[in-house]
Amino acid sequence: MSSTCDVLVDCRDAARTFGRGANAVVAVHGSSCRVRAGKRISIIGPSGSGKSTLLHLMAGLERPTTGTVTWPAGEGDDADPTPRIGVVFQGPSLIPALDVGENTGLPLVLAGLPEEVARGRALAALELLGIADLAARLPEELSGGQSQRIAVARVLAQRPRLVLADEPTGQLDRATGGQVIDVLLAAAAEIGAALVVTTHDPTVARRLDTRWRMHDGRLEMEA
To answer: Could you give the number of structural domains in the chain?
Structure first.
């Protein structure tokens, strides 16, 4: 039987509005959902449906205008200050001046880990994904699929309990996108993390066990 201690994200009537007055746009209407440890969830919907905003609320990147978003399982401890939530964005967001190894370890350095520890964990993550041979390359030397794999490795190195992936295949062709989903699923399994993926692609959505749908900013849960 599950308990509140395995709830990684708890959204209660969480809504997000951008702008004010006549210019206000409700990106997410009051939405309630929970993500529990080990779950594999897709949030499907067309562009502008609010799925990315909901993911950003879950990640703590946006604050709800009304309602609440909480993280009952916590976000780290003194022994390992890295976040308990890792985010894979629509684009890989790699820093051009840093090589792949440095890009992969950067969030760990920013979280306060010593550079040598961050480098070791970054290389281990690249090794797990079978791309350690890319460690010395610069982002400009990578293909789109390789860049997105590096983004996954960067999250894997953080060893989060929850991985949130925002349209990770949106800029890739079908075959490369399928490979990135393979990598995400394998990475989440490797570190024992829950996985939530936003997508407009039903093929991607079907790769995950549970499907939620966003429509005009409203979350529709599976029956």
So the answer is: 1
